[in-house]
Design goal:
Number of domains of chain B: 4
Largest interface: A-B, 28 and 30 residues
Number of helices of chain A: 1
Low-confidence stretches of chain B: 1-30
Structural class of chain A: alpha+beta
Number of strands of chain B: 0
Mean pLDDT of chain A: 81
Order of helices and strands of chain B: HHHHHHHHHHHHHHHHHHHHHHH
Number of strands of chain A: 11
Structural class of chain B: mainly alpha
Largest sheet of chain A: 4 strands, antiparallel
Strand content of chain A: 25-35%
Chains: A alpha+beta (148), B mainly alpha (414), C mainly alpha (390)
Shape of chain A: elongated
Radius of gyration of chain B: 37 Å
Low-confidence stretches of chain A: none
Oligomer: heterotrimer
Chain lengths: 148, 414, 390
């Protein structure tokens, strides 16, 4: 068998190259498959994002979270009143907090106060908080996320 | 059809009637009165200025009396209501004749306490108490004939014009020296951070002279003295100051609250330099305790600022390279908020406040750094993965080359 | 297993044979596969096929990017960010597309230089050369339109500057710029038309041109180094078969090249940058490297003259086979052509480097130089001594 001028060696090279090519093609196909697999359950950018459940957010309370580096505050101002705002103060970009008892947004930096609908009540902020659209379907609260 | 004709006539009639009720002599605008026909010849600018003023509808006789329906001089001298030009000391009452009258001012939604307020002011006290006619009366600030609404940018009491209006007297060294008052405040104000906000940022809510000193009265409503006025806008600073040892010193009169450090008219944007220089004005020489507190704050601020700028630089780079850093970005904003919020909080001079902010921010910075590191590490994984792939590709390449050599060799033999 | 496979193959073959002139197909394929190439076909001849590989890479990764990319000014940057940060292997696909584009131009230039040096563009292959020059032009247009799509500061402003150049065309300049941009400024409209050009129009143009280019190449076979007109003088038994010999050579080069491409993607990934901000021009806006020589050239010539000057080199490239009608192919016997070619390459390199360092500070031999718009430099005082004097 070995006498025939190194036939096994040649066979080995063929197998190696064939296998190598196969691995190469698989290696190319794998990232493509991964890439096409949905990255988010609800798709890409500018979508409604999940903001939790109605039952988890008592009336008068607020909830802070971020989407793509945007700080967002969701508050429940009334039984069926849900509002979402960018929590960046339009004055100097400080993060405003929801003050449940007084039903106001307060900026810790320069004492800016915003009403529950985001309007400036007092202080230096030049404009209202940026509002985002909120929809409630059943128990699910969703916020329309701004482009980053 | 008939109704269609009558109805508009009724509406016009009602409109005229109500206009006549609201503005005592609204018809004066439409037709030149006998006052105007003479005074226009002698001083046309005067008449024009009244016509373009907020009082255009009041007409000459609304203030000066007389009967505009009668021609020539009879309009003045034959009419018992004629007042003519008021004496300087009588100006406040002259304007107050209408402006203190609730019935007249109510339709315009204008307050009626200006005269009463004026009487409490230094200007009023001097005028009515000492009979000093050099002090400002209504017309000195508001103008006499061409008075504009305070909302009109051409008005002498529009926010941007107030400093120069007050400055007409208060910058005049000669006038001020009689009262032993400095003439520098209006000029000082122009250097201040407040003037900056008013003029550069066009922020009309920025304080001008009247915001702190009151406009008609001696002090703004709800303020005992001028030095209390800062806290009305700088709420957090005032609140923190109230907790500080300086609050007691102010009570006993050893210190003048805000003014002691920030001065009064030429208030500059406070920097750390102010913190460095202001304390030693009072805490001279060996007051180590006060200076230690100051130094702690200075180092704290320095460290915070350095941390925030270094970490935000890293974060920016990571974001630009295409890492997902949303969570860290929000934390960064919170860190910046804490840094900005420390500025008012420092007025309490409480080192516990400082160390709490420092501690919290260190935690945040640590978390941000960690999350950046993790992201970059994921790139490191890619780099490690590259090694076996590269080796595989090179070996494959050699394999192909070997196969080619073999094929050529075989062909040569054939 | 083997039995099953050969069975299936037989079935398919008989199916085809019943319906089509199957042997014509297989003969053609065999003929093409085993086509004998001239014996001097060297490693240098693989640049062209690497360009073809890159074309396939661009098409595949391009299609994949289109899945997540959104060509609107509101979402373009975010969608790229999404691809880069959230889509599994998104960084890889985008990196391959971005670096593939750059390497494509490198490969085309190398391929062109190879063809120039070996005199392969001469009669009877003038049209192959002409289609090649058009392919280079289309590829550069691909680069220009694709550069805007990430909608970041660099792409926005480089496109602003790039489209501004067309204003200098006499008479129609202004209209041309507005037409290119789809408005007065760079906007979502510009993004939309660049996108359409990039993913629909140009791909078909390129595929058509490549088809013609390859068809001509196969029909006329590769040029030898013999002078124009003399019969190809290589003995048939020395011919190199396209398959397997040449293909194996290409595979050998291709695998290493793939490694290089991956290394670039992994070790120097394309940046995301900052989102485009029409109100804020960043300092030092430069076009992509392959535009740098033209960019620098335009600075030396006033408006309309600049347009004509920068049109000259591509025009010369296009008509090269019709100007250079000497019969020799071997570079040793074409000293004038080689010298001129070398000067052209050197001039492009110098212009490119000057364009790269213009309006910036350069450190060289421990000294800092300030380079102005035109590439004149000035030694800057050492900063440490400066502060010492203060």
């Amino acid at each position: 068998m070995v006498t025939d001028n190194g036939l096994p060696r040649r066979k080995f090279l063929d197998y190696f190259l064939g296998g190598g090519l196969g691995v190469l093609l698989l290696g190319m196909a794998a990232p493509i498959g991964a890439y096409l697999w949905p990255a988010r359950k609800r798709g890409g950018v500018q979508e409604m994002i999940d903001a939790g459940r109605v039952s988890e957010l008592p009336v008068g309370s607020g909830k802070a979270f971020q989407v793509g580096g945007h700080p967002i505050l969701l508050v429940r101002a009334g039984e069926t009143e849900f509002r979402a705002f960018s929590s960046a103060c339009p004055h100097l970009g400080c993060i405003v907090h929801w003050d449940g008892p007084s039903r106001e947004f307060k900026c810790p930096c320069h004492a800016g106060v915003f009403s529950a609908d985001g309007k400036v009540v007092s202080g230096p902020p030049p404009s209202a908080l940026i509002a985002y659209q909120v929809t409630v379907t059943g128990d699910q609260i969703k916020i329309k996320v701004p482009p980053a | 059809m008939r109704g269609g004709v009558i109805l508009p006539a009724r509406i016009v009639g009602a409109g005229l009637l109500s206009a006549a009720l609201l503005l005592p002599a609204s018809t004066a605008v439409a037709q030149p009165t006998s006052c105007e026909s003479c005074h226009f010849e002698s001083d046309s600018a005067l008449v024009e200025s009244v016509r373009s003023s907020v009082h255009a509808g009041v007409g000459c006789h609304g203030c000066h009396g007389g009967n505009p329906a009668v021609p020539d001089e009879a309009a003045m001298f034959d009419d018992p209501t004629f007042k003519g030009k008021p004496e300087r000391k009588d100006v406040p009452e002259f304007c107050g004749g209408c402006h203190s009258d609730v019935r007249r001012m109510n339709p315009f939604g204008i307050q009626t306490d200006q005269l009463a307020q004026y009487k409490t002011s230094k200007h009023g006290e001097m005028l009515f108490g000492k009979g000093d006619e050099n002090v400002a009366v209504c017309a000195d600030c508001h103008g006499a004939h061409g008075i504009k609404s305070p909302k009109d940018p051409a008005s002498t009491v529009y926010p941007t014009n107030i400093p120069s209006t007050c400055g007409r007297c208060h910058s005049d060294e000669k006038k001020m020296s009689k009262y032993k008052l400095p003439s520098s405040p209006p000029a000082d104000y122009e250097h201040s951070v407040h003037a900056q906000a008013l003029r550069v940022r066009k922020d009309l809510s920025a304080p001008t002279c009247a915001t702190c000193h009151g406009n008609h009265g001696a002090a703004p409503p709800g303020v005992k003295q001028v030095s209390d006025v800062c806290g009305r806008c700088h709420v957090r600073e005032a609140e923190a100051f109230g907790r500080s040892p300086h609050a007691a010193a102010t009570e006993t009169g050893k210190m003048k609250a805000c003014v002691s450090c920030h001065s009064n008219h030429a208030i500059l944007h406070p920097t750390e330099d102010l913190l460095r220089s202001a304390c030693i004005d009072c805490h001279k020489g060996t007051d180590h305790k006060a200076l230690t507190v100051r130094d702690e704050f200075l180092t704290g601020f320095g460290q915070l600022r350095q941390d925030v700028s270094a970490v935000s630089e890293d974060l920016h780079k990571a974001a630009s390279r295409g890492f997902e850093v949303g969570e860290a970005q929000v934390q960064m904003e919170e860190a910046k908020t804490a840094l900005i919020a420390l500025t008012p909080a420092q007025h309490a001079l409480d080192l516990a406040d400082l160390s709490k902010v420092l501690r919290e921010n260190n935690g945040r910075m640590e978390e941000i750094r960690k999350s950046i590191k993790e992201k970059v590490l994921s790139e490191g994984v890619r780099r490690l993965m590259f090694l076996p792939i590269a080796i595989f590709l090179v070996v494959l390449s050699i394999g192909f080359a070997a196969k080619r050599a073999e094929v050529e060799q075989n062909r040569g033999r054939e | 297993m083997g039995n099953f496979l050969s069975n299936a193959r037989n079935k398919i073959e008989s199916f085809m044979r019943d319906r089509y002139p199957w042997d014509v197909f297989t003969d053609f394929a065999k003929h093409q596969a085993h086509k004998p190439l001239p014996p001097h076909v060297s490693w240098w001849h693989t640049f062209g096929s690497l360009a073809v590989f890159l074309l396939v890479n661009q098409i595949v990764t391009g299609i994949l990017l289109m899945v997540y990319y959104r060509p609107t000014s509101d979402h373009a940057f975010d969608s790229i960010k999404f691809i880069q940060t959230e889509v599994p292997a998104g960084w890889l696909i985008r990196g391959l597309h971005s670096w593939g584009a750059t390497l494509m131009i490198v490969m085309l230039i190398l391929h062109m230089i190879r063809v120039f040096v070996m005199g392969s563009y001469k009669k009877p292959r003038e049209l192959t050369w002409v289609t090649g020059v058009f392919l280079l032009g289309v590829t550069v247009t691909f680069g220009f339109t694709g550069y805007l799509l990430p909608w970041n500061q660099l792409s926005y402003w480089a496109t602003t500057v790039g489209t501004e150049v067309s204003r200098n065309i006499p008479v129609i300049g202004n209209a041309m710029t507005v037409f290119l941009r789809g408005g007065e400024g760079i906007s979502g409209e510009t993004l939309a038309r660049f996108y359409v050009l990039h993913v629909v129009v140009l791909p078909w143009v390129v595929v058509g041109l490549v088809a013609v280019h390859l068809f001509l190449m196969r029909v006329q076979n590769l040029a030898t180094m013999d002078p124009v007109g003399s019969a190809p003088s290589w003995p048939k038994d020395q011919a190199i078969r396209f398959f397997p010999e040449h293909v194996l050579k290409e595979m050998s080069v291709f695998t290493v090249f793939l490694g290089l491409l991956l290394a670039l993607v992994i070790f120097s990934p394309p940046e995301l940058g900052e989102p485009a901000d029409p109100l804020n021009t960043p300092a030092g806006i430069k076009p992509e490297w392959y535009f740098l020589p033209t960019y620098q050239l335009l600075k030396y010539f006033p408006k309309t003259l600049g347009i004509f000057t920068s049109m000259l080199p591509p025009l010369l490239l296009l008509i090269l086979p019709f100007i250079d009608r000497s019969l020799d192919r071997h570079p040793k016997r074409r000293p004038l052509a080689m010298t001129l070619g070398a000067i052209a390459v050197a001039a492009s390199l110098i212009l490119g480097v000057v364009g790269k360092i213009s309006e910036s500070h350069v450190q060289f031999l421990g000294k800092t130089y300030e380079v102005d718009l035109y590439g004149r430099w000035l030694a800057v005082h050492d900063e440490t001594s400066d502060t010492g004097a203060r």
